[in-house]
């Protein structure tokens, strides 16, 4: 798995709320999309795992909103795994608007691996741990030179 992953997204008109900016739930949706794409790119086959009765679920989200996104904004949702333990992994995100070098939100999610049939948290299997790559320190923002 790459140390970090960028999901590019253009804000659509239907993502705008009555206050004329992106609704808070959309930020959360973008992080879920980015996490899914990152793990898929790293070899995780969610459909196969689901057939076997296993998967990742969210235990905790923390979002700090810093600025608003509006229609037609070109965004980058940068995500990385910041920590892995026996039963969980912590994933971080920076939702950014590179045009004006603005971080719109910072997000942390704690994911746990579960047996979906028993609804029980499991130790993360070694084969799956081998796919996870902790990014420490955090990656640069999308407009910074590596």
Care to describe what's here?
- With 146 residues, the protein is of the alpha+beta class.
- 21% of the residues lie in helices and 38% in strands.
- It contains 3 helices and 6 strands.
- It has helices at 24-41, 46-52, 126-131; strands at residues 4-10, 54-65, 74-84, 88-97, 102-115, 120-121.
- Strands 1, 2, 3, 4, 5 and 6 form a 6-stranded antiparallel β-sheet that branches.
- Strand 4 (88-97) and strand 5 (102-115) form a beta hairpin.
- The longest helix is centred in the N-terminal third of the chain and has 18 residues, at 24-41.
- The protein starts with a strand and ends in a 15-residue tail after the last helix.
- The mean pLDDT is 95.
What distinguishing features does this structure have?
146 residues; 3 helices; alpha+beta
Number of helices: 3
Profile the largest sheet: 6 strands, antiparallel
Strand content: 35-45%
SSE topology string: EHHEEEEEH
Shape descriptor reads: globular
The overall pLDDT average reads 95
Unreliable stretches covering 5 or more consecutive residues: none
**Count of DSSP strands:** 6
Helix/strand class = alpha+beta
- Alpha carbon gap, first and last residue: 18 Å
- Cα Rg: 16 Å
Helix proportion of residues, in percent? 10-25%
